[in-house]
Design goal:
Length: 256
């Protein structure tokens, strides 16, 4: 039932597997790291927040390696690869940031550059590096976190909306090129989820224009574990014939 959080784990589903999870310190990434760990996987947890990663390690107390740093910094990508070692079975590109709901005419260069850098460019660079391990192995599963803002124009500001449409394009292109080589690539498109993501309204016009849509169209706020269930399904062999999917995990928003 939508709104109820299912926590049925699949024992041993990730046993012997190494999965990189970005944004693992909070929200959807944290719930994903928890579930992978509970199902026997080794987690490479990446986040810009040292404090959040320390809390994760204290919670999991299991097979987890942490990399602290900004994914926009190329040296962090190198550190992730070193922490993972020779084998990477899965990658969950979860880290992301919102904009300030700015419409095109109000977008600042700083917001645009940062949102595209974190949500798109860092995702591409880490995926490119991880593919360097997955391709010789002829196996792997990549899951990107998009958004319902990647399916429409009425869910965020222009920078975030653009970045999440780019996540979809990156997902489809990666799936197209590498599914024949044994690597699956999919995305989930969440609706609203109860996390620590910051989403301040910086535009009066956006408030007027988006307000009525938010009041009538948006389903109840989901829990991060509901997203983790879909992400881990796509990462796992349970989804062995799924590649190139953009899966709405949004309480039915996609149907509106
Ligand atoms: N919460 C929602 O309603 C919602 C809806 C749709 C999509 N999403 C997407 O879900 C993903 C996860 O967001 P969340 O809601 O769990 O947010 P969150 O803020 O709770 O967690 C995101 C984590 O990513 C980390 N992070 C951010 N930028 C980083 C960087 N440059 N380098 C390394 N780590 C970085 C943060 O420190 C944080 O711990 C994002 O891609 C977001 O766009 C969220």
């Amino acid at each position: 039932m939508i709104g109820k959080v299912a926590m049925n784990t699949n024992e041993g589903r990730f046993a012997g597997r190494t999965i990189v999870v970005t944004g693992a310190g909070s929200g959807i990434g944290r719930a994903t790291a928890h579930r992978i760990s509970a199902e026997g996987g080794r987690v490479i947890a990446v986040d810009i927040s040292e404090e959040r990663l320390q809390a994760l390690v204290a919670d999991l107390g299991a097979d987890v390696a942490c990399v602290t740093g900004d994914l926009c910094d190329d040296t962090v990508i190198i550190e992730v690869m070193a922490a993972a070692g020779d084998r990477i079975d899965g990658l969950a590109n979860v880290a992301g940031i919102m904009d300030g709901f700015e419409p095109s005419a109000e977008v600042t260069d700083a917001t645009w550059d940062r949102v595209i850098a974190v949500n798109v460019t860092a995702m591409m660079k880490l995926t490119r590096a991880v593919l360097g391990r997955m391709l010789p192995a002829g196996a792997g599963s990549i899951v990107n976190v998009g958004s319902e803002a990647g399916q429409r124009g009425s869910a965020a500001g222009t920078p975030y909306t653009t970045s999440k449409h780019a996540v979809n394009g990156f997902t489809l292109s990666t799936a197209f090129f590498y599914t024949p080589k044994g690597i699956r690539c999919n995305a989930v498109a969440p609706g609203p989820v109860a996390t620590n993501i910051e989403a301040p309204f910086h535009s009066e016009w956006a408030g007027q224009r988006l307000g009525p849509f938010f009041q009538t169209n948006i389903p109840p706020i989901a829990q991060p574990e509901q997203l983790a269930a879909a992400i881990t399904w796509l990462l796992s062999d349970d989804a062995s014939n799924v590649s190139g999917a953009i899966l709405p995990v949004d309480g039915g928003w996609a149907a509106v």
